[in-house]
Amino acid sequence: QVQLVESGGGSVQAGDSLRLSCTASGHTDRSPNMGWFRHTPGKQREFVAGIDWGGGITDYAASVKGRFTISRDNAKNTVYLQMNSLKPEDAAVYSCAATRSSTISSPAAYEYWGRGTLVTVSS
Question: Which residues does the chain have with pLDDT short of 70?
Answer without folding.
Answer: none
